[in-house]
Amino acid sequence: MGRYVFRLPDVGEGIAEAEIVEWHVALGDRIEEDAPLVDVMTDKATVELTSPVSGVVVERAGEEGSELAVGETLAVLETDADVEAPTDEAAPPPAPPAARPPPPETRPAPQPAAATARPLASPATRRRAKDAGIDLASVEGSGPQGRVLDRDLARAATQPAQPLLARREGVTDVKVIGLRRRIAERMSDAWSRIPHITYVDEVDVTELESLRAHLNATRPEARLSLPPFLITAMVRVLPDFPQINATFDDTAGVVHRHAPVHMGVAVQTDDGLMVPVVRHAEARDLWDLAAEIGRLAAAARDGKAARDELSGSTITLTSLGVTGGVATTPIINAPEVAIVGPNKIESRAVVRDGQIVVRKMMNISSSFDHRVVDGADAAAFIQAVKIRLEHPALLFMP
Predict the structure, then answer these.
(1) What is the pTM (predicted TM-score) of this model?
(2) Which residue out of 10, 34, 173, 374 is catalytically annotated?
């Protein structure tokens, strides 16, 4: 028998630490070589680590939410034969004692997952729960470590509904870990460091929606949603506003104005908001944009987006779709200096040539880093986008 010490590998360039998101095995479980061992999250993406050897898991470095430095012990496996593991000399120096998890014999016993973190479940189970309108936090999982399985969803779906006026008791504690913690940290940092200016304008999209319907009827195999039109309008006018397609290194005091438009597109996933990047949006037509947005959104929702697909954006488009409300105040995706968010399209009574007519209207909400973008430039940029959306023939002109 031998013991293999599996240390946290370098899972990305320049990454010094990672957070444990989900263990795929419990203590005492046997795992085969190359089988999924644990999911860890860096600042860039979630990475699935597989077991380097076959054996029994006899030690895990922490539970979901624990953070480890590269080179620290992640797991110890008892193997059937001696297996050569990386030597201590090859590993980075250990973290200070205060930052390390307590040893197994003194570590508190983990609490049930439902009480300390988001419920454990596979992405497919999460999707089925969402489609069925079932709150996973309310489902008692029967799998390892309380993992919610499909049979648990089926049982929850058949339970009788609570009476309308029944009293509810109890508190569910959900530990903020993984992507949700990263989002919280990034949003807090962006809001505290960036002086936001928010600008909202109204756009008549009647002609645009007519064109979109016509194009979709002409090419039903490649349906177009609204974002490709918005992105096209933005990339047409951004050369006139180089200070907006930019990132700001406020530590060095340097604004990087980018020639290419790498458009971040906010995507809602079961774990939280992710921003995959449509690279060189300026070189794509409407259908190419639609296809790339669809591909990236699917990869993000399935947890399969690569690290380089989730970084490097120069400006971001965010949208709540048909639930987009009247106006929003989007928070800038630092280090970018601008974010644009369309609101829902609705029929409104408006005055045209002295007559009250019904038009399809949409508000555009946008936020800018006031250290880099003046209010007048922010308004001029959105108005330039508005002109191209209201006269969609301009989208196909230089």
Answers:
(1) 0.69
(2) 374
